[in-house]
Amino acid sequence: MKALIKPKKLVPGDTVAVISISGGKLGEPYNEANYKIAKKRFEDIFDLQVITTPNAMKGEVFIDKNPKARVDDLHWALQNPVVKAIIPAMGGGDSYRLLPYIDYNIIKENPKIYTGFSDISSSHNMFTYAGVSSFYGFCFLTPLAQPGSLDLYTENAIRKVLFSSDPIGEIKPSEKWRPIAYGEEPIEWHDNYGYEVLQGKGKVSGRLLGGCGEPMRQMLGTYVFPSAEMWRDAIIFMECGNPYGGFSGIAMLRSFAATGMFRLAKGLVCQTINDDEKKDLLRVIRDDEGLPDFPILTGVEIGHRTPMTILPIGAIAEIDCENAKFSVLESGVE
Fold first, then answer.
1. Most buried of 29, 273, 286, 322 (most Cβ within 10 A)?
2. What is the pLDDT of residues 39-55, one digit of tens each?
3. Could you tell me the sign of the dihedral formed by the alpha carbons of 152, 153, 156, 162, in that order?
4. d(Cα 296, Cα 285) in Å, to the nearest integer?
5. How far from chain centre, in Å, is Cα 333?
6. Options 3.30.300.30, 3.40.50.10740, 3.40.190.10, 3.40.50.9100; which CATH number does 15-167 get?
7. What count of Cα atoms within 13 Å lies in the side-chain half-sphere of residue 144?
């Protein structure tokens, strides 16, 4: 996989645009208070100005019926010189519908920070196809409007990855976690148990490539799904556990295995998964694919729970199997 274009880092005072690129819940009346919470936190904590794209607040029905309008908003934000970063409000389930309308030259000629998880994986594929790095991590409502306050782990990840051109370095597991949520209802925090090496030895490194299982599966067979050459020597990151948008057991795993991605890549990192999901992962990668030494590290803070780290797609990362460590060896921004 070739190096991707890195966007410019954020600096205090910059303007970021919130977009409803996937689901349209941001524009519903029941989310008015949550939007205000997320906006105030983002502005107060990071000294950034928050605006919305022209169609972002038009609600679920409009967003569902108008995928072209979503892409128009993306093009608008990319070409707007005031906007320095684009943050999807939240995920959804149908971003593959954006494909007919995307202008990849606009993405390539205007590289900007673009974040998100879950269904945002589909549009991350579009950025990768255009040759531009994007960031698997937070959306606007989730987790910025999480109950109580923005957790320090996620805040520090945003500062380290998006505001600094220094190498990101080791990404440590969080001490606590809780289910992803937004609003005022309190959500209990749980002790976290850190990283686990399911198999593998030594250290491996490669460029980060991946996303959330179900939306990635929707992109199979399209021209933006990463090619074999892109998976070669990559470090795959993947949400690979249910019920939070990951692999649906053996069938999902085997659909990815059929692309050759596991045989081509150097290793895999995923979020915390349960014992049955570990068995599925090992059955497909170790047994079906015949890869007993393929490094697999679980417990990385990606996806559908709080807190979240941020992974710059295309950046060189390292799995240290002997010490159960995960690092990003370069910066995500310039």
1. 273
2. 999 999 999 999 999 99
3. negative
4. 9
5. 15
6. 3.40.50.10740
7. 30
Contacts of 9 (CB under 8 A, 6+ apart): 162, 163, 164, 165, 333, 334
8 A C-beta contact, residue 115 and residue 137: yes
- C-beta neighbour count of 276 within 10 angstroms: 11
Sign of the C-alpha dihedral computed for residues 245, 249, 250 and 251 taken in this order: negative
Q: Cα dist. 111→1, 3, 52, 154 in Å?
A: 18, 14, 19, 23
Q: Give residue 186's pLDDT.
A: 77
Distances (CA, A) of 231 to 206, 264, 273: 10, 6, 23
In sequence order, what are the beta bridge partners of 328? 169, 317
Amino acid present at 106: I
Q: How far apart (Å, rounded) are the C-alpha atoms in residues 138 and 144?
A: 8
Which SS3 state, helix, strand or coil, does residue 304 take?
coil
- Give the model's confidence band at 181: pLDDT under 50 very low, under 70 low, under 90 confident, else very high: confident
Q: Give buried/exposed letters for 252-261 (b at 16+ CB in 10 A, else e).
A: bbeebbebeb
Amino acid at 96: Y
Lookup: tokens for 274: 């349960």
